[in-house]
Design goal:
Blueprint (H helix, E strand, L loop, with lengths): L1 E9 L12 H21 L2 E6 L8 E4 L5 E4 L8 E10 L3 H12 L13 E5 L9
Antiparallel strand pairs: 1-5, 1-6, 2-5, 3-4
């Protein structure tokens, strides 16, 4: 089974506040994420994962006349959080995806304490019947 684990961050000013952290705290946070990703590769559970640019750099694209892309900087849905990054993992049971999400949630913050980041876990639809 594949699951997408989505790391949602508080919206605040619209940008990810990590850019304002002390450099050592930023490095520790990134190292934590790199270690998590390396561990998922070692266990064979890694499919993909990426950090995303902040909402201020996002674009909305719609199909325009003749199928031409019409690109704008909004409007965006009003939310209190935004998607900062994601992992796609391949695991045997949902409980393992939950364990990985809990680990990701514990990434260190600017003071070194776990951020307890909300991680949304959703199964990737693969068209296959659920195995019980």
């Amino acid at each position: 089974m594949k699951f997408m684990l989505m790391m949602n961050m508080p919206r605040d000013t619209g940008d990810y506040q990590i850019n304002k952290w002390h450099p050592e705290a930023f490095k520790a946070h990134i190292q934590f994420m790199q270690d998590l990703n390396r561990d998922l590769v070692k266990t064979g559970e890694w499919v993909d994962g990426q950090g995303l640019t902040p909402p201020g750099q996002a674009q909305i694209v719609r199909c325009g006349p003749g199928g031409v892309a019409v690109v704008s900087d909004g409007p965006f849905a009003e939310t209190k959080e935004f998607l900062a990054g994601y992992w796609i993992v391949s695991v045997e049971k949902p409980e393992r995806a939950y364990e990985i999400a809990a680990k990701a949630s514990s990434a260190p913050g600017p003071d070194g304490k776990p951020l307890v980041i909300p991680i949304e876990v959703r199964r990737v639809m693969d068209g296959l019947p659920d195995e019980e």
